[in-house]
Request: fold
Amino acid sequence: MSISRILDKLNFIKECRKYHLGLWQCPSFLFVVMGLVNIIAMLGTYFIARRYDNPEIAVASVAGVSIIIFIVGSSIVKGVEQIARANIAKSEFVSIVSHQLKSPLSGMKWSLELLMGDKIGKLNGKQNSYLESIYEDTSRMVRLVNDLLDVSRIENGEIKLIPQKISLDETVRDVIQELKFFAAANNAKIEFKTENNLPWVFVDPLKIKMVIQNLIDNAIKYSKGNKKIVKVSLSQKGDFLCCRVSDSGVGIPKEEQGRIFDKFFRSDNVMKKQTVGSGLGLYIAKAVVENSGGKIGFTSKKDKGSVFWFTLPVVSEANSK
Reply:
């Protein structure tokens, strides 16, 4: 087997191509080279020390190895810097484009709302149908732009949360009410179970509402069968409230579960069921929950369904007044 095939199997070449780096600029490859150099250096120094009593030879061999390690380390630093610059440039590009798109898309949405209303005259059924289709596509683009802006803020460590003391129970009920018609259109039923007298949480209400919307929306879209049941539960676990959303949908293959919260990632199993989606919802949800002091996770089996959950710290009695 050739060296290139061995490296390809170890994913070094794939990683280098992914970041548009040469082999001798790729940190993954250079770390292995540095490890090999260290092993060779230790063995070489050992045999030199045994063979020669002259200390100058040992010092020269150590100095030579140090120079090699310095050169390899310098290449690693340059490769990492190149990847970092590419990531910064990409984030800046996404942020600029998203800001530029947000204003015209919002203007289009408002204009469509005006046309679909009764203030400037009524439309016939066919005209209204076309406008509704355009409005739906425009709304989807607005959501995507907002998601991209959130991703840019998260990557720059600038995620903005405006926490307030809220009832998570009421927030979940509001989301379920808003998604009632969407669930009915997908032949799904949402069941909600909650404990009594749950404590409040101190979080950004809009961001947490978005997290809940994303989890329930996904459960509805990816469920299977003619009568789909999405189960939502809310309970207290010590100093945290736990919200769980379960479905009997397509599930997530085990080999893909480690990437489910990655940016832009969508499972192959999910894409067969629902082609529309950006792969940003769970990435943003994870950032919001963790920046709110909670945790998020899931369990899933392929073709058996998934259970997504997140926790949020409760407001202590001392801070509730």
